[in-house]
Amino acid sequence: MAKQPLLPVEEARARILASLHTTPVESVSLADALGRVLAEEAIARRTQPPADLSAMDGYAVRAADVASVPVQLKVVGEAPAGSAYSEHLGKGEAVRIFTGAALPRGADAIVIQEDTERDGNTVTIKEAVKAGRHVRPCGLDFRTGDAGMSVGRRLSPADIAFAAAMNLPTLNVHKRPVIAFFSTGDELVPPGTEPGANQIISANNDGLAALIIEAGGIPLDLGIAPDQVGAIRDAAERAGAADMLITLGGASVGDHDLVQEALSPLGLDIDFWKIAMRPGKPLMYGSLDGKPMLGLPGNPVSALVCATLFLKPAIQRMQGGDSALHTSIARLGRDMPANNSREDYVRAGLDHVHDELPVATPFEVQDSSMLSTLADAGCLIVRAPGAEAAKAGTIVSVLPLRT
Q1: What domains lie within the chain, and their CATH numbers?
Q2: From CA 283, how far away is CA 153, in angstroms rounded?
Q3: pTM of the full predicted structure?
C-alpha cells in the first residue's frame, strides 16, 4: 500500500461519521428506554393536568366573594384528591379541597387552609385571593397532541417519567448498534490468567466493552486473535451481523501487524490510515465487505483515547443522537512545552473551583503505556498542532472524561 499522509483529527472524524447509517427503529417499553435515542416524536396522548386542579389544601372559592376580608362562606361540600364536588359553586359558598383535586364548577381560586378558620359548616376567610391563586390550570404541563420530546433526544430518567405522564407505555427508538471487536497479539492473555514469559494482560477488550456500553451500544467481544492471518480472519468473520467491527492492534507497520493482510481477501476497503494525533497515530478506518471497520491502536491508552474521539461519536451517530465532541475550557495548572506537528490529547487532572474556571493540570509523565494516569484523568487537554509553549493560568480547551 502506498504511504498516506497523516490525516487531521477533525477530517478523520468527519469522514467516519459521514459514512455511517442510523440503525433501524424499534418500539421499547419505558423500562427499557433509558439512554435510548428517540427515532420518532413522543406525542402526548392526554392533557396534563386534565382539569383545573388545586395546588394546595384549603377551600375552593369564587375570588369575587373574598375580595374583602374577613368574610364568612358556607361550606357546601368536600373535594379530596381523586374525587370532585359535582355541583356548581354558588355565591357565598366554599368547598373544602385537597391538593390535586379538581376545582368545582364556578370556583376560580383556592384559599390555603392556614388563612381560614372553620366552625361547623361556616369558614372564615382571613386573606383575600385573586382568580387563579393556587390553581393549576388545565393543560399547564402539556395537552393532547403536543410533541413532548423530539427526534434525536437521548432519554434521561426525567424523560421516562415525562413519557409516562403523557400516557405513552412505549417509545420508538433506534436500535442499539452492535459493535464487534477483537484484540490481536501473541503476547496477550485475558485478565485472571497468569502471564507466561513475554506475555501481558489484555486490558483493551474490557475497557472497550465498557466504553461501548456507556455510548449506548452493545459490545460483542470476539476475544484475542494470535498473530496469525487465519486467526485474524476467523475472528473478523465471527462479527456476523454486527453494525461495526473494531480491531485492536495489528494495523501498524511492523512485521507482525497482519490485520490488513488478513482481511483484504474478505473485502477490506481502507478509507484512511494514520492520524496526525498523539496518542493514537496508527488508526485505520474503512469497511469490511460493506461493514464499517475501525482499526484502533493496540496500546490501551491510545485505544481508549481514539475510541473516545472516534468510536463513541460513531455509536451516537448510528443511534441518531448527538455525535459532537463537547469540549469546554479550563485554566492550565502547570506550564506546558510547545507542541509538535500532531494534535495532542494530554491526560490531566480537572479540579473544579467555586465560581471560577476549572483547573486542568497535566500529569508530568504522559507515557502512552500508563493506564493509571488515564484512569485518574478528569479530562484531556486538547493542543493544536504547533501550539506554542503555555504558562500556568493559560486558558486551554479540554475534553471532559467524567460527568
Answers
A1: 9-24+175-318 (3.40.980.10), 29-47+147-174 (3.90.105), 53-136 (2.170.190.11), 328-400 (2.40.340.10)
A2: 30
A3: 0.88
